[in-house]
Amino acid sequence: MPPESPAARETLGVAHNGIALTEPLVLQSGVTLAGVTVAYQTWGTLNADKSNGVLVCHALTGDQYVIGTHPVTGKPGWWNDLVGPGKIIDTDRFFVICANVLGGCMGSTGPKDINPATGKAWGLSFPVITIPDMVQAQAKLLDHLGVRRLFCVIGGSMGAMQVLEWAHRYPERVFAAVPIAGSYRHSAQNIAFHEVGRQAIMADPDWCQGAYADEGKIPKRGLAVARMAAHITYLSETALHRKFGRRLQDRDALTYGFDADFQVESYLRHQGYTFVDRFDANSYLYITRAMDYFDLAAENNGVLAEAFTGTKVRFCLISFSSDWLFPTVESRAIVRALNAVAANVSFVEVVSDKGHDAFLLDEPEFHQTLQGFIDGSADAHGLPARRKP
Amino acid sequence: MPPESPAARETLGVAHNGIALTEPLVLQSGVTLAGVTVAYQTWGTLNADKSNGVLVCHALTGDQYVIGTHPVTGKPGWWNDLVGPGKIIDTDRFFVICANVLGGCMGSTGPKDINPATGKAWGLSFPVITIPDMVQAQAKLLDHLGVRRLFCVIGGSMGAMQVLEWAHRYPERVFAAVPIAGSYRHSAQNIAFHEVGRQAIMADPDWCQGAYADEGKIPKRGLAVARMAAHITYLSETALHRKFGRRLQDRDALTYGFDADFQVESYLRHQGYTFVDRFDANSYLYITRAMDYFDLAAENNGVLAEAFTGTKVRFCLISFSSDWLFPTVESRAIVRALNAVAANVSFVEVVSDKGHDAFLLDEPEFHQTLQGFIDGSADAHGLPARRKP
After folding, report:
1. Is the pLDDT of residue A1 over 50?
2. Chain-wide mean pLDDT for chain B?
3. CA dist B174 → A73, B39, B167 (Å)
4. Annotation marks residue B157 as catalytic
5. Which of A171, A176, A258, B380 is most deeply buried (CB count within 10 A of its CB)?
6. Chain A contact probe: residue of B31, B225, B242 with most A CBs at under 10 A
């Protein structure tokens, strides 16, 4: 019997590809979680050496649908610009894997699932999960897929946290690591923004102390407000000004009311109220908590460098100059720690006015940096060179 | 019969000093608002020349209780550091006035008051008010107090918007103007943050479409979330880091739950849930809307300088280096416009890591700058010199 077996999970009417873990996960909190499913997608083919695996780690509200058409929203995948045949993360060269994080709501086990002990949705009785827990689940998936060692692990924002955790916890399983627009620990300001989002969800009476599924309700208003607040932090002031300024929405003059007079208001409302159709409120609580708890220095006696002692992983860190959620200073702190242990590290601060969201967007300097690092690392890893167009 | 008559208004069990305007206000929206009360406090004595009046304009959630003990919260006034006998805004020298803004909830007419036409609380039927409307009401108060021309009008944040409007609309009534940490128009990002706050309030079922007073309810949860989101923007990342970092609240280790593990979470919750005891949710909607609508350039053919053509007002602008809500670039834009009309203007960016809130705090460079400007202007205005301690 294989240690893991295929499992299909359904969310919002969509069946997700996944595996059911045979062994329970022992979480960082000490809690044992049995019956875990890891939902995932892959693209490309694992080579004979099993050396061309690329693990993509998604951000807070992302999921495993990196490219193609998202099965729930019908929109393009969140990294269509970067991943695909002939693209920087070339699915003709690499075997690309992305798993929905533990605690998520796109097929991997999370608070919306049924707690086998009660027959009801977990809700707030689901154990708090952490970034290391997410990474542990991904490692089980790689075992199942036969990928002992990854060519590369890459991700932005919360994805970058997972990348760092991978390099720390499984250095022998990672050849190259690319944490983008990330941090080794969540700042006070970022915890504060997450707390506002959680409070908005918990303030919604339809949240029902987390048991909304049992009550047949959805805390849409609270989740929408949480998303709106978060969304502001993903953009720079400059980007907001360029996109919207003080322009009015489908009107010539102020209405002297509380409708969305300004385009930026209309945009935010749209962001908030479309989000609730694809995301679970409790998952939002759990995943933001995982980010808040992440502190790779604290896990290593308060010394970040100790997380990487003796590492042979090749690192490429990328930050964006207008990102105020995960500013460049956060990436620099990681670079300094890696330098302190003589790690192989390159670092680029991409000049961009697009804010944190730049890692999802078509930013030429970002893409060029990444292309250079991926191609050079593939060469160093003994993978065939990229087919030039 | 005097054009205005004394009126006492009660809020939260506290009687506020005020005047009832005899004439209706014609608002910027074109709506006529009758039966307006302006609640206010004064300190010091108007001199024989009636030339020593200082109007203090409060910020979004401030009020007329600038100094002393706040009658509702029991806490010190919001500018106790700056205003008082022997202080920079010296109540032994100046006749200091502060009015609760129109639309507020500390005694001036606002959405929580009874609409005489219906006998019910105004709620959302209260007309949208603007910064110019607030200033118009203040001008009526000054008429009542016999202050034809102010020595100085001063305020931070939304107070700075009122100061700019005063200098624009009533230049002959202002000798010196001090807009601190302000802007001539609310940015897209700031509108976005306000919109999140409004959406949080409106998402609370206890808001009852604004008619919560009739229903005997208070949308506490929504208002608390709005306050929490706003509060983050008042502090700098550095200040949050220094005050809280990732320190835990009354515990030695993470609890792996959704209690306030981190001090910054506990602080934010406290800020949110104490605010609702002193502020009205609909007032929050109306006053944020007034700030969003403010655009002194748009009021002047899109050219800010035209707002100040030929002005004889002496200006002192102050910004704070770590203020990301009203960053220095906003004050510089005003300085440039004033320079373009050859106005008398001085400008200081105070180096501070305390964020927007610095204007409320004991910042020595800020206070020194202000002391110099006030004393020099008092001299130029023919007021007696400050008694040196």
Report:
1. no
2. 95
3. 57, 21, 6
4. yes
5. A176
6. B225
How far is residue B348's CA from residue B363's CA, in Å, rounded to a whole number?
Answer: 13
| Bridging pattern class, strands A174-180 and A150-156 | parallel
- Two tokens, residue A178: 């690319």
Residue of B168, B356, B357, B377 marked catalytic = B356
Angle CA(A81)–CA(A85)–CA(A90) in degrees, nearest 5? Answer: 80
What tokens appear for A325 in the block? Answer: 């959620």
Catalytic (active site) residue B367: no
Quote the CA–CA distance of A383 and A83 in Å, as a whole number: 18
Strands (E) in chain B, as ranges, are 4-11, 14-21, 25-26, 32-33, 37-43, 53-57, 83-84, 89-90, 95-99, 114-115, 120-121, 150-156, 174-180, 314-320, 344-350
Query: Quick one: which H or E segment has residue A164?
Result: helix A158-169
pLDDT digits (tens, 9 = 90+) for B307-341: 999 999 999 999 999 999 999 999 999 999 999 99
Mean pLDDT of B140-160: 98
- Give pLDDT tens digits for A30-63: 999 999 999 999 999 999 999 999 999 999 999 9
Interface of A with B in 14-73 (CB under 8 A): 29, 31
Q: How far apart are CA A38 and CA A109, in angstroms?
A: 7
pLDDT at position B13 is 77
CA distance A28 to A293: 11
Go through the domains of chain A in sequence order and give each one's CATH number.
4-186+299-380 (3.40.50.1820), 190-288 (1.10.1740.110)
Q: Compute the distance between CA of residue B179 and CA of residue B308 in angstroms, rounded to an integer.
A: 14
| Crossing angle between the packed helical segments B281-293 and B188-203, to the nearest 10 degrees | 160
> Tell me, what DSSP letter sits at residue B299?
G
Start-end of H helices in A146-211: 158-169, 188-203
pTM of this prediction exceeds 0.90? yes
